[in-house]
TrEMBL record:
Keyword Isomerase: yes
Lineage, uppermost ranks: Bacteria, Pseudomonadati, Bacteroidota, Flavobacteriia, Flavobacteriales
Organism: Mesonia oceanica
EC number: 5.99.1.3
Keywords noted in UniProt: Isomerase
Protein name: Reverse gyrase
Length: 700
C-alpha cells in the first residue's frame, strides 16, 4: 500500500517539475481519495505535495513537517465561524486583492469555495453596507442562512423590501428586488454579483436587462465591486466591467471522474436501463440532470414504475405531509416515499429548501432530479452527477452550462472524487468568452447625457427618440421625475411606453381601477383582462384561466392548497400549474401592476386612483406579508397559519415586519414555539427545527 502511495507521489512530483500543476493537483486529489477509502494518514511527502499544489486546507498538521504546519496556520483566516479556516492558495490570493480595494471579476470552478472569500472579507474589512446580488430567491435564502449565523450579531441581514436600515447592513437580493433600495442607500462599500455571467443575454435573455440595469445604477453607488462566475475563459470589452480586473482561476479542489456512456446507448429504453444500473451500483447521493419539465415527468414515470416505497421514517413523514398540505395524487408525494426528490424553479421556496436539506441528510433523499435550477438556485453537490439529457429547455446544452452542472460532482472533505455519468453526447469543449452587449430594453430608464458613453450611435438615437415620445405622452417633468425615482419594475422600455399610450389614449377604459383594492374578486374581471392584455403571451396560460386563477388565489390565506386545487379543477389547473401561475402573479403580474400604478397616478390624476393595496396583495400571493416572506426563509405558509391560529404570532399585526417576527420567534425559542402551537405533526416539527437553525445568531 505504502509502495503504491510512493509511486503515485513520484508521478505527481514529475508533473510539478514539468510545470503541469493542474494535472498534478488532479492526481493528488485521487491519491487523497485513496487515503480516505483505506483510512490512511498522510505521510510528510503527501503533505508536502499538498502544499506544492496549493490545497492548503487538506494538510494534516499532525503528520506534516514544520514548513507545512507553518503554511497551514499562515493561511488561516476568520470567516465568521467558531474557528479560523485555512484557505487554499487561490482563495487567499483573491482575498488579498479584495482587501487591497481592487474591483475584480473572477471566473473560478464550482468547487472553488468562493463564499469563504466573501465571508473573510466581511470579517476582516468590517464594511458598513454590503450588497450581494444573487440570481434566484433560493440562493438568496441559502446565502442569508450562511451569513446570518456568522454576522447577524453585528449586521442587519436584509432580503426583503421596505426594511428599516441599521448602522451596518448586508443586503442579499435578486437584481429586481435590489433596485428598491436605489434611492435609500447613499453608498455601498462593496457590491458583489454572484453568477454575473447572467448579464449576458446569451445565458439569460429574459432577466439579463434587469441585471445590467442593477449593475449600472447600483454599481455607481458602490465603492468596490466583486463579480463571480464559473468557467469563463475571457471577458469582452464592455462598459460594465471596464474598471475591473478579470481573473481566471482554473483551480479544482475535487476530481471529476467522467464515464461517457452515451456511445453504448441506442435508444431511450437502453438509456433508462443504464440509468437504473448506475443508481443500483452507486449507493451515494446522485443528482440527475433532466434538463426540462417534460423530462422530469418521464423520469418520474420511470422511477414510479420501477421502485416501490421504502421504509424510511423521515421520508414517510414528508410524503404524508405533502399529501395533507398539497396533493395526495402529486407525483412528488409518491417519489419522496422512494427516496427521490425533484428540484425546479417553480416549487414553493420552502419545498425546494426542505428537499435540499433532506438531500444533505444521510438518511434523507438519495436521488434528486433537477432542471438547471440546481445550478442557479443552490450550492449543493453530490457524489454522482448523471446527465440524463443534453438540453436546457429546448436548446442544446452549451459547454459552459455543461461544465457548471458536472461541477456539482464531489465536495471538499466529503467526496474527493465526483463521478459524472454522461448518458447523452456532451457539447464540444470550447472557450467561453462572456459578451455583455448593452440591451436596448433598458434605454428608456437612462439619462441621455449621463450614459451616452455606454451606447452605440444607433442606441443614442433610439434613446433620444424614446425620451421625446415619452415626454410628449406624459410631459417632460413627469417623465424626468419617474426616471430619477427609478420607480419602474420592468426593464422593458417598450412595455412602459405601451402602458403610457393606453392610459393617455383610452383614459375612460380605466374607470373603476380602484375597485381592485376592494376584496370582491367577482368584480375584478374587466380590469384584470385589461391589465394582462398590456403584456399578452406572458402568463404561461390563456387569459381566462389566468384571470380565474387570480380570483381563486385571492383566498390563499383563508383556504388550504387542496381546497384551492379543488376549485381550480374546472380550469384544468393542477398542482404544477398552481406553482407556475402563483409565481407569475407574485413577480411578473405584480411588477406590471407597479409600473401601471406609477404611470396612472400621473396620467389619470383627476381620477385619484391608487392600486397599491391590490398590487401588494398580488406581490405576496394574497398571504399576510410576513407569512410570504417567512416562506422564503423556509417556513411553509401552512405552519405559519398554525402559529397564527394558536396565537403564537399575530400575522395581521400591521406593525409586524420580517425582522421583528424573527426576533419574536428567537425570543420565544423553538421548544416553546412547538409547545404552544396546536396541531403540529412530526414533520411540521422537523421543518421548524430546520427553520430555527436558519435564524440562529452566533453567540459573541
Amino acid at each position: 500500500m505504502q509502495e503504491q502511495v510512493f509511486n503515485q507521489c513520484h508521478i505527481i512530483n514529475g508533473l510539478l517539475i514539468s510545470n503541469q500543476e493542474n494535472e498534478a493537483r488532479q492526481e493528488l486529489i485521487k491519491l487523497l481519495d485513496y487515503h480516505s477509502n483505506n483510512d490512511l494518514a498522510y505521510n510528510p511527502l503527501v503533505n508536502h505535495l499538498i502544499r506544492e499544489t496549493g490545497l492548503f486546507p487538506y494538510l494534516e498538521p499532525e503528520t506534516s513537517n514544520w514548513e507545512e504546519r507553518f503554511i497551514y496556520n499562515a493561511f488561516k483566516v476568520d470567516v465568521g465561524e467558531e474557528k479560523p479556516l485555512t484557505l487554499h492558495r487561490e482563495q487567499s490570493f483573491l482575498l488579498k486583492r479584495l482587501l487591497e480595494g481592487k474591483n475584480i471579476a473572477v471566473s473560478a470552478p464550482t468547487s472553488f469555495g468562493k463564499s469563504f472569500v466573501i465571508d473573510a472579507y466581511i470579517k476582516i474589512k468590517k464594511p458598513n453596507n454590503v450588497l450581494i446580488i444573487v440570481p434566484t430567491l433560493a440562493l438568496t435564502d441559502e446565502t442569508r442562512r450562511r451569513l446570518y449565523k456568522k454576522f447577524a450579531h453585528e449586521y442587519k441581514i436584509i432580503t426583503t423590501s421596505d426594511v428599516e436600515l441599521s448602522d451596518k447592513n448586508i443586503f442579499i437580493f435578486p437584481q429586481e428586488r435590489a433596485m428598491n433600495y436605489i434611492n435609500i442607500i447613499e453608498s455601498f462599500d462593496i457590491m458583489i454579483v454572484d453568477e454575473f455571467y447572467k448579464a449576458s443575454s446569451k445565458f439569460d435573455k429574459e432577466r439579463s436587462p434587469s441585471l445590467i440595469r442593477a449593475m449600472i445604477k447600483l454599481g455607481a453607488k458602490s465603492n468596490q465591486k466583486y463579480y463571480l462566475a464559473p468557467n469563463i475563459t475571457s471577458l469582452d470589452s464592455n462598459p460594465f466591467t471596464e474598471d475591473m480586473e478579470f481573473i481566471r482561476l482554473d483551480f479544482n479542489t475535487v476530481y471529476l471522474e467522467k464515464h461517457e456512456l452515451y456511445n453504448q446507448i441506442n435508444n431511450n429504453e437502453e438509456k433508462s436501463g443504464k440509468l437504473l444500473e448506475i443508481l443500483s451500483n452507486n449507493k451515494g447521493k446522485s443528482l440527475i440532470y433532466a434538463g426540462t419539465y417534460s423530462n422530469i415527468d418521464s423520469l418520474t414515470n420511470l422511477f414510479l414504475d420501477t421502485y416501490e416505497p421504502v421504509e424510511n421514517e423521515l421520508l414517510e413523514m414528508f410524503s404524508d405531509w405533502l399529501s395533507k398540505n398539497y396533493d395526495v395524487n402529486w407525483s412528488l408525494t409518491k417519489l419522496i416515499s422512494r427516496e427521490i426528490g425533484v428540484h425546479n424553479g417553480r416549487l414553493h421556496r420552502s419545498l425546494s429548501q426542505i428537499q435540499v436539506k433532506l438531500f444533505e441528510e444521510e438518511n434523507g433523499i438519495r436521488n434528486l432530479i433537477s432542471t438547471s435550477s440546481i445550478i442557479e438556485g443552490v450550492n449543493t453537490s453530490a457524489e454522482n452527477v448523471i446527465i440524463w439529457r443534453n438540453r436546457k429547455g429546448i436548446a442544446k446544452l452549451d459547454d459552459f452550462t455543461y461544465k457548471n452542472i458536472i461541477g456539482r460532482g464531489g465536495r471538499m472533505f466529503k467526496h474527493f472524487i465526483g463521478k459524472i455519468y454522461i448518458l447523452e453526447q456532451p457539447p464540444e469543449e470550447g472557450q467561453t468568452q462572456l459578451d455583455i452587449p448593452f440591451p436596448d430594453e433598458i434605454l428608456g430608464d437612462l439619462d441621455e447625457p449621463k450614459y451616452e458613453g455606454l451606447l452605440t450611435k444607433e442606441q443614442v438615437a433610439k434613446l433620444k427618440l424614446y425620451n421625446e415620445e415619452m415626454s410628449e405622452l406624459i410631459g417632460v417633468q413627469v417623465y424626468e421625475e419617474l426616471k430619477s425615482e427609478s420607480v419602474f419594475q420592468s426593464s422593458n422600455s417598450d412595455l412602459i411606453k405601451t402602458i403610457a399610450i393606453d392610459l393617455t389614449k383610452n383614459p375612460d377604459e380605466w374607470n373603476g381601477l380602484y375597485y381592485l383594492n376592494e376584496f370582491k374578486p367577482e368584480n375584478w374581471d374587466r380590469l384584470l383582462y385589461k391589465i394582462i392584455k398590456l403584456q399578452p403571451g406572458n402568463w404561461d396560460t390563456g387569459h381566462k384561466t389566468f384571470v380565474e386563477f387570480i380570483k381563486i388565489i385571492a383566498y390563499n390565506w383563508r383556504k388550504s392548497i387542496p381546497e384551492l386545487l379543488k376549485e381550480l379543477e374546472d380550469y384544468d389547473v393542477g398542482i404544477d400549474d398552481f406553482f407556475k401561475l402563483e409565481r407569475n402573479i407574485t413577480y411578473k403580474f405584480s411588477a406590471l401592476l407597479q409600473d401601471l400604478n406609477s404611470l396612472q397616478k400621473r396620467i389619470l390624476k383627476s381620477k385619484s386612483y391608487d392600486i397599491t393595496r391590490f398590487m401588494t396583495l398580488c406581490s405576496q400571493a394574497f398571504l399576510p406579508k410576513v407569512v410570504f416572506q417567512l416562506e422564503e426563509y423556509g417556513l411553509p405558509r401552512m405552519i405559519s397559519k398554525k402559529l397564527h391560529e394558536s396565537e403564537v404570532m399575530n400575522f395581521f399585526d400591521s406593525e409586524l415586519t420580517i425582522h421583528s417576527a424573527i426576533a419574536q420567534l428567537n425570543e420565544i425559542g423553538k421548544e416553546t414555539t412547538i409547545e404552544r402551537t396546536k396541531n403540529l405533526d412530526n414533520f411540521d416539527k422537523y421543518i421548524l427545527d430546520y427553520f430555527f437553525d436558519g435564524i440562529k445568531i452566533k453567540n459573541t
